[in-house]
Amino acid sequence: MKITRLVVSLLCVLHCAVGIAAIVEAEIIDRVLAVVSGAVIMQSDALAAFELGVVDPGATDDPIAAVLSQLIDRQLILAEVDRYAPPEPTADAIERAAQQARARFATPAAYESALARSGMGEARLRRMWRDELRIRTYLDERFAVAPPSDDELGQYYREHLATFTRGGQIVPFDAARAEITTAVVTSRRSAVVSDWVRGLRRRADISNLYLVRR
Predict the structure, then answer these.
(1) N or C end of the chain, less CB within 10 A?
(2) Are 180 and 153 contacting, i.e. CB atoms less than 8 angstroms apart?
(3) Spelled out in words, what is the top-level CATH class assigned to the domain 2-145+207-213?
């Protein structure tokens, strides 16, 4: 199973990167991986964020570096969220996010094992999902993207025909229109947000201890 292989890889890299000697008798040994303007990112944060789907390292030979980079960005964004204080997510919204995370696992036991590996308790877990929902709300409000024109949609469709091919057949433009619109808007907003985050990084005090220790 892909997620299992990635978990093993992440654990192995964490072991080598931060000098963990062993995890004995279910004891959780944690380490600081980075400090972002005074906010600490722990090894357990990285493992929990990965296993629960908050971040995705993608295809990489160094999953912890990819996960940590995304968590650094996330912390920078969260600091901005705290400054502007968007509406608080409801308890129901937090619970739905938690349920989606649980659905990533084949069984409840697999989910509980993932929490145990990272030392993630229920209260800390709910704080993580609260923060994630606050970030999403903030980004939606701050970085709204204008709807693309028909010409822009058509251009994206022609340039990404492989994406809109099902069973060897190209999905007609009109049938794929909603999917194309979502893809264009997501791509545009991602580019704008990435540029904004690069600016946050330039102004922040970031100590990446994982890179120092490599």
Answers:
(1) N
(2) yes
(3) mainly alpha
